[in-house]
Amino acid sequence: RRGSGSSSSSGQTHLHTSGGSKFSASSGSKSVTTRNDLSAELKSACEVLAEWLHDSTKTKAREIKVKGSKENSALHTVKKEWISLTSAWNGDNSKIESFLSALGSYSQGVVDKVLDLCDSDSGNTAMHYAVQNGNWQLIRILLKAGKINHTVFNHSENLAIMLLRKSKLHNLSA
Questions:
Q1: What is the pTM of this model?
Q2: In the chain, what is the straight-line distance between the N-terminal and C-terminal CA atoms, in Å?
């Protein structure tokens, strides 16, 4: 499971996501991203999440998730970027892989936590969006990245697998 681009003379492509984070990908190969490629805000949020997942007694609850004040929490910061990347109908799977790679540099626990984050509006997880949009490649990426909770219902009371019937997955051998 687990923007726009510009090239430099070193053969690196810099991709910018809507959340303002920057990813570096070598031209012609899969992108490998480290925490240094994330925005300062995302780095800070990932550090708080990693610390909380390692030892929840050291992190104040308000740093993780604050009811009524989502904008200031680490979880909201990461969630906003994750949902932005995974909910797009024609999303860039290489950006998603890069983002997961950067998260993995903090801990696998951070990746596993992010894989199950839900969009506040629809209740969809990344897997819901991947199935709904018929994106087999993203489904594979998500399944290889880490532990996914397959029992998450969205606001319409659908599991991701239940969206298969309504999805754009036409070629089941893909």
A1: 0.71
A2: 18
